[in-house]
Amino acid sequence: MSEPETTALKTEILPADATGIARAAAVLARGGLVAFPTETVYGLGADAANATAIAHLYQAKGRPAFNPLIAHVADSAAARRIGRFDATAERLAAAFWPGPLTLVVPQAERCPVADLATAGLDTVAIRVPADPIARALLAAFGGAVVAPSANISGHVSPTTAGHVAADLTGRVDLILDGGPVEVGVESTIVGCFDAPTLLRPGGVPSEAIEAVLGRALVRPAAAELRAAEQPLAPGMLASHYAPRAAVRLGATEVAPDEALLAFGPAALPGAARAAAVLNLSAAGDPAEAATNLFGYLRSLDTSGIHSIAVMPIPNDGLGEAINDRLRRAAAPR
Ligand code: TXA
Ligand code: MG
Questions:
Q1: For the chain, first and last CA: distance in Å?
Q2: Residues in the chain, pLDDT under 70
């Protein structure tokens, strides 16, 4: 017989109204874990200054502690208390905050973020989210909140409170339900190093960032991002965002026992006989596709489906982030 689960928490789910937000801030303040909506995906928040809370967060997600977390703050002034902003960081913050952009910058002198959350690096990842619920929670709490996506490590990121509950019930104190998210893929991460570096494509298209900077972003090879010695973005594991079913990219036909993740108006050979079909955007709009991506992967990943065929998706705009997530979902595990 297995041991009783002594660490199981009673997970409350509350609507993200004033009462829910006040309660969430109180839970954070006493070192608890709160899942909350942001415009990109739902995050699992803990007090960034509380190492014990952060240890519980890594445990709840089953996430390796060498993978650092993003510190979420209410505004640029709070961001400057955490990190040192060079000209690049200043420009990007002015152009894209609040919004789906994360900046990796050197830590400020008395950076309040616990070492456990930065995995011992001397940099810190910072984001000012745009979602009104996230902003209200950060304002009510008053400090920085570290928040990875609110899913079990390696699993598909959550875009609804229901997705969060499916992964984390019994592992977190509170889930704030603010309805489906706006963007649907995680923030773009830019390293403000000597040469600004794209560490993860995401909710702000890289073209928009390059237009503001007037220069191309450095794009490290996947192997460089994962290199064990000097991890640039230690979370960039090859296999990630993975459904249980296999994911087959660039599909030009679909087998009768496969599910199809379609894109655009064209019908694929075999689609009529596929086990299931969901179209990310019949109109071929990458922003609409991003909103649907993680939810559709979850929906198609039902028992009996061993393979999800995915149609090609153009790489511009949010397509770059979508293709990045799909490549990881398809990577050998
Ligand atoms: O949209 C998002 O960014 C969501 C929402 C909740 O804000 N959060 C999110 O967090 O995607 P997470 O933990 O799933 O991804 C954070 C990524 C990881 O790949 C991590 O390695 C990287 O940020 N990261 C964090 N701190 C870093 C640092 N100092 N240097 C380089 N990469 C860092
Ligand atoms: Mg994640």
A1: 30
A2: 1-7, 222-239
Closest CA to 82 of 131, 23, 138, 33: 138
How far is residue 262's CA from residue 246's CA, in Å, rounded to a whole number? 16
Atom of ligand 1 nearest to the CA of 147: 6
Q: Is 98 in the pocket of ligand 1 (CB under 6 A)?
A: no
Helices and strands in the chain, H and E counts? 11, 14
pTM for this model (two decimals): 0.91
Q: Please list the residues that pair with 200 across neighbouring strands.
A: 189
Residue 323: count other Cβ atoms within 10 Å of its Cβ: 18
Atom of ligand 1 nearest to the CA of 183: 1
Q: 307-310 and 259-262 as β-strands: parallel, antiparallel, unpaired?
A: parallel
Distance, CA of 301 to CA of 159 (rounded, Å): 15
Query: Could you tell me if the CB of 291 is within 6 A of ligand 1?
Result: no
